[in-house]
Backbone:
């Protein structure tokens, strides 16, 4: 299974928006850009909602039929480890191996030594052309990288082999993610992480490093934009160089776990991948779920009441809902509107506060982030929520398609 040059990771928490998401990709196709969908849903999301990977598979297959989608499509076991992978084996054909927990846990000393030895030729010939953030790599640097990342990569190897044994090596796409680590990886570190991945024999097709800055859920980038741009471009060069040097799969590309809505970065990413003729996997998260809320609010009546009730409950249960997302949200509670105020809002006011449109003074990123993690409330509403989604289907679908196409696909893959 060889992942195409451009792919987009989309989430569909309640399994209702697959067709609306595919229509966004069909619009891209009409503009001459082929992007294949990868539906991602993590163990955390499945547990919160009470679904299983087979539910995702079913929803996705139905959507593909409904839209007459003829290209590839994938179901991603997002951020899995050896503990959680088995649940996904039957339904997934894309596996994001998350080994961030093993970063910094020191590997066997002999293994680190032999890694340093195998890489010591790069102390003379580094840097990679065009990579300016690192001009020299010493044996000490290599040792530090080995100590920090070797065990994590070894763990990725174990998970990969576990999947390959069950599914057959050529029947799935492998991604390795370190984006949930505590510290970003520099382009030079990325190069040696890829070296270690090659030594483990993992046929990696996408790699998700942790970039500089914060990739919070559902809101724009927080951080040094220019530094990100420089690092991102260098990462592309590093990957191209690593493919040749370590005989990694030719289609290996960057995966950006965006957390959705990194509108400031999208034009920079587009410029860099175009300039270097590089592929990209853009993973989004939760932007479709928030469009469901926008659509319900726009629908008015009972739809709007549900959107407001979800906020009220989310506000009351903020500690519980935020806990699993602590490191990827940044909510200033003082800036959250009182639920009684929100219950009095018109549907227009609700939508303005929720939609990520920074040109509107009413937009409230704290409100948006709380609702982002508030999907558990909708899940608990069960059939009341799902029935309303069906009732407002057209309004919601239009928003889902437009959001994905105009706000994500166009700036990243097509260029505005
Ligand atoms: Zn991630």
Residues:
């Amino acid at each position: 299974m060889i992942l195409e040059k451009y792919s987009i990771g989309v989430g569909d928490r309640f399994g209702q928006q697959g067709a609306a998401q595919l229509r966004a990709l069909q619009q891209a196709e009409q503009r001459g850009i082929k992007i294949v969908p990868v539906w991602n849903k993590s163990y955390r999301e499945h547990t919160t909602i009470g679904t299983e990977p087979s539910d995702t598979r079913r929803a996705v297959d139905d959507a593909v039929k409904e839209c007459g989608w003829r290209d590839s499509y994938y179901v991603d076991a997002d951020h899995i480890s050896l503990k959680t992978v088995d649940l996904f084996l039957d339904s997934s054909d894309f596996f994001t191996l998350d080994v961030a927990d093993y970063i910094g846990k020191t590997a066997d000393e002999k293994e680190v030594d032999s890694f340093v030895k195998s890489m010591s030729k790069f102390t003379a010939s580094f840097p990679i052309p065009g990579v300016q953030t690192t001009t020299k790599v010493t044996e000490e640097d290599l040792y530090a990288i080995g100590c920090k990342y070797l065990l994590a990569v070894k763990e990725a190897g174990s998970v990969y082999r576990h999947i390959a044994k069950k599914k057959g090596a050529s029947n799935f796409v492998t991604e390795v993610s370190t984006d949930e680590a505590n510290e970003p990886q520099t382009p030079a570190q990325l190069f040696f992480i890829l070296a270690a991945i090659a030594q483990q024999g993992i046929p990696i097709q996408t790699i998700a490093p942790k970039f500089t800055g914060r990739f919070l859920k559902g809101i724009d980038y927080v951080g040094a934009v220019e530094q990100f741009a420089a690092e991102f471009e260098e990462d592309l060069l590093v990957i191209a160089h690593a493919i040749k040097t370590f005989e990694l799969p030719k289609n290996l590309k960057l995966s950006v776990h965006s957390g959705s809505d990194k509108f400031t970065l999208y034009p920079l990413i587009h410029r860099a991948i175009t300039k270097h003729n590089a592929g990209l996997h853009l993973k989004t998260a939760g932007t479709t779920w928030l469009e469901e809320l926008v659509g319900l609010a726009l629908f008015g009546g009972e739809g709007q009441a549900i959107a407001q009730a979800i906020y009220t409950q989310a506000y009351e249960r903020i500690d519980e809902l935020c806990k699993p997302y602590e490191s990827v949200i940044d909510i200033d509670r003082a800036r959250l509107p009182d639920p009684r105020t929100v219950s009095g809002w018109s549907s227009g006011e609700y939508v303005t506060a929720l939609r990520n449109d920074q040109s509107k003074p009413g937009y409230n990123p704290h409100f948006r982030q709380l609702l982002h993690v508030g999907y558990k409330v909708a899940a608990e509403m069960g059939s009341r929520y799902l029935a309303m989604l069906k009732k407002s289907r057209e309004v919601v679908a239009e928003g889902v398609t437009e959001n994905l196409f105009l706000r994500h696909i166009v700036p990243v893959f097509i260029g505005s």
About this structure: The chain has a mean pLDDT of 96.
